[in-house]
Specification:
Number of domains: 1
Low-confidence stretches: none
Helix content: 40-55%
Radius of gyration: 15 Å
Shape: globular
Largest sheet: 3 strands, parallel
Strand order of the largest sheet: 1-2-3
Strand content: 5-15%
Distance between the termini: 36 Å
Order of helices and strands: EHEHEHH
Length: 125
């Protein structure tokens, strides 16, 4: 079984937005309280986040808590990885190469986030 939750985030219109560190803390605290150690992995849905924010949040959880968690944390690769490529592609053959590069870039950022090695400098390509 792989659990596919969203991260614990404030709503977009919530007047108090929280830091990446706070989201990591709250999300991991919630998971530790509710998810059995026998679950092998947690694959987060993007929950409407940008690809950059989703990578930053996963990275923060893996940096701060990876050695303490009984399960692996990763992404359920869908909107957060595909959306930038789809926005570039628009179904046009001329945009295929640029869309593929965008998809590869998001995959590389998410791979780094999975290992706790993501930095915002990776977004400046």
């Amino acid at each position: 079984m792989i659990l596919k939750p969203n991260m614990v985030l404030p709503g977009l219109t919530c007047p108090k937005q929280v830091t990446v560190e706070e989201v990591a803390d709250i999300t991991v605290e919630c998971l530790l309280r509710a998810v059995p150690a026998a679950v092998p992995g947690i694959a987060f849905l993007s929950g409407g986040q940008s690809g950059e924010l989703a990578s930053a949040l996963l990275n923060e959880m893996n940096i701060r808590f990876k050695s303490q968690l009984p399960w692996a944390l990763t992404f359920s690769f869908a909107r957060a990885i595909q959306q930038p490529a789809l926005e570039i592609w628009h179904g046009e053959d001329a945009n295929i190469s640029a869309a593929q590069q965008a998809l590869y870039h998001r995959a590389s950022c998410n791979r780094a986030a999975r290992k706790g090695e993501y930095t915002d400098k990776m977004e400046r390509i």
